[in-house]
Amino acid sequence: MFDLDKIQEIWITITRNRVRSFLTAFGVFWGIFTLVVMIGSGDGLERGVMKGVRGFATNSCFFGSAPTAIPYRGFQKGRNWDIRNKDMKILLDSIPEIKFLSPVLWGQTTNNNIVYDDQSATFHVKGLYPNYAQVETQQLFYGRFINDIDIEKKRKVCVIGKKVYDRMFLKRDNPIRQNIRVNGVLYKIVGVTSGMSDISIGDKIESSVLLPFTTLQQINNQGDIIHFMAAISKDSIRANYIENRVKQVLKSANHIHPDDYKAVWSFNMEKEYTMYMNLFNGVSILIWIVGLGTLVAGIVGVCNIMLITVKERTREIGVRRAIGAKPRKIINQIMWESIVLTLISGICGLCVGVYALHIADLVWVQKQENMFILHPMITFRIGIASLFILMISGILAGIIPAMRALNIKAIDAIREE
Using CA atoms, how far apart are residues 155 and 238, in angstroms rounded to an integer? Predict the structure, then answer.
C-alpha cells in the first residue's frame, strides 16, 4: 500500500534540505554576529581610551627645561637652565596665537608632608594658575578652584584633591575653611577637586594639594623659577605650530642654540589625540572589512542553497510556467525565500551579538577599574545599518537563483521527469 523506499527517499531529501538550510542560515547568523561583536568591541575600546583624555584640552602643549646638547655663545654643552617668569611675558608678547599659558611649580614631597588634625599622609604639592582649569577640566566637590585674587595677593589657601580629602577627612565633613598643614605651613582649604582625565602630567590632581602659583613660588624660595608650563592654542591654530614657536622663543630668550633638540622638552596633546583617532579609524575599517567578509561568505551560502532549491524544483517551476504563471511571480517567490532566510538568520545574529556585548559589559568590563574597553555596545544607527545590509544581501543572494528559475521552461520540466 505504501512505497517505503519512496517515503524514505522523501524523508532523506527533507532532512538534507533542513541541514543545508540550517548551515546556510548559520553562516549568515555568524557573519552578522561577528560584525556586531567586533563593532561593539571596537567602539568600547575607543570609548575606554578616549575616557582617559576626556576633560583634557586636546590643543594643549607642555614645556620644560633640560640640559643643553649644543654649546652656544660661550656656554658649554650640558648647561642647566630654567624657565622663569620673564619667559611667560616674552611668550605671550611673541606668540599671539597662545590662548592660555599656565605655569606649574612643584612643592616638596616628604614623608607625611600633609597634616590635618591627627591625620598625616604623603601627597604631592603643586603651584598652579587659575587658567590651568582650561587645560585639565576640574570636577569640584566642595568650594572653588584657585582664583586671580589668590595669585595676586599670594594667599595661603589650597585646593585639595579628592583622594587627599578621603584620606584626611575620615568623617567626610565639609572641609571648606578648615586649616591643613602642607610642608609645615598652614593653608586654608577653599575647595576639593578632581581632574576628569586619566592623563597626568606629573601627578594626578586628585592625589595632590594645589596652591596658588605665586604663593608656592615665594615659599619655595627658588626665585622666579618655573618647573614647566602648559600652553593652549587658539581655536583656529594647530598645537603643532604653538609647540614649535614656543621652543624657538624659549631658545632665543635663554641663549640656546636654535638646533638644540634636547634643551626644551615638550609634550603635544594634539599629536597624541590625532594618533588615537587614526588608530581607531584603522581599527574600524579593519573591523568592517573582516565582518563584511564573514557576512559575504554567509550570503554566498544563501545563493548556493537557493540555486540548489531551484534545481530541485525544476519540474514544479516548469509546470507553473506552462500553466501561465507570470515571470514576476516566479522571481518574487525565489527572492522572498532568499530575503526571509537572510533576514531571520541575520536578525537572530544581531540580537545574540547585542546580548553578548551586554553580558560582557555586566560580567567582565564593569568589574574592572582600569579597563581599556568601556561599555562595548553598538549604536541604534549601526543596528539599522545592519538590517539594511541584511536586506540588500538577501536581494543580491536571490538574484542569480531567480534568473535561473525564470529561464526554466516546460520542456525542461518534462525532461527532468
Answer: 36
pLDDT value of position 128: 93
CA 96 distance to own-chain centroid: 32
Tens digits of residue pLDDT in 216-243? 999 888 789 999 899 999 988 888 999 9
Distance CA 264, CA 247 (A): 6
pLDDT of residue 6: 47
Per the structure block, which three cell numbers stand in for 354? 547585542
What's the rounded Cα separation, in Å, for the pair 273 and 275?
5
Rounded to an integer, what distance in angstroms lies between the CA atom of residue 391 and that of residue 386?
Answer: 9
pLDDT at site 18: 59
Which CA distances in Å does 196 have to 51, 128, 129, 207, 306? 9, 17, 18, 13, 56
Residue by residue, DSSP assigns 256-320 as --TT-SSSEEEEEHHHHHHHHHHHHHHHHHHHHHHHHHHHHHHHHHHHHHHHHHHHHTHHHHHHH
| Residues 48/372, Cβ–Cβ less than 8 Å | yes
Q: In the chain, where are the structural domains located?
A: 4-54+274-416, 67-97+234-262, 98-231
Per the structure block, which three cell numbers stand in for 258? 636654535
Residue 207 is classified by DSSP as: G
pLDDT lower than 70: segments of the chain: 1-24, 52, 198-200, 202, 312-314, 317, 320-322, 325, 364-372, 406-417
Cβ atoms 55, 282 nearer than 8 A: no
Q: What is the b/e burial string over 400-415, where b = at least 16 CB atoms within 10 angstroms of the residue's CB?
A: bbbebbbebeeeebee
Cell of 287: 573591523
Question: To which residue does cell 527572492 refer?
Answer: 335
Q: CA-to-CA distance for 141 and 416, rounded, in angstroms?
A: 82
